[in-house]
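# step 3/5: fold
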Amino acid sequence: MTTSSNPRVLRRFIILMAIATFVMFSIWTMVGQFKDVPDGDFEVRQGDIFLTDGKYEKAIERFEEALVKQPNHRGALSGKAVALIELEQYDEAETELGSLIDFLIRTLEDDDITGRGALAAAYANRGIIKDRQERYEEALKDYIESVRVDRDLAEGPGVIDRILYYEKEPSSILGRAEYLYKQLQLPESERVMRRPEEDDKQRLYKP
């Protein structure tokens, strides 16, 4: 009996070829995914994962690596700012957001929906920084800009996010802006600028 007609050998050959085909397909798929990825995108994706896991220092490292490859990468600037805010390094975060806002204002095209969302998020997050620092008039200005740039973002997370993350409708940039505006119209002695239960529902806008 020849080797080619031996059922065991033939079966083993078929299995090995199937495994080799799977491995090559997997490699081809991975190469295809990263072949045309813009500079810095891979590092930003890694940073986003660390950001979600609460590993803010590691997230910042990845975002900085992305910025080396592409200095004005808006996802990296936004992600780094969010990580810095979570670490309560507000001055550095505000600087990053200021750079992002300036860059987007200079370069944003009218049909760039993603860019408009990034700009609105940058204004919103900078407003949150100022809000936490009790710079309420400045925070209100940034919230208003966020609303002006992208009303959908300012109205807050969608229905799915509300189900996943909140028992009640979450606080939003628009809602917080309306509240601040009303309070700032009152005499200073009558203002109630903070509502801990509501304020705790407000979350940062991630890239």
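# step 4/5: annotate
The longest helix spans residues 7-35.
# step 5/5: archive (pending)
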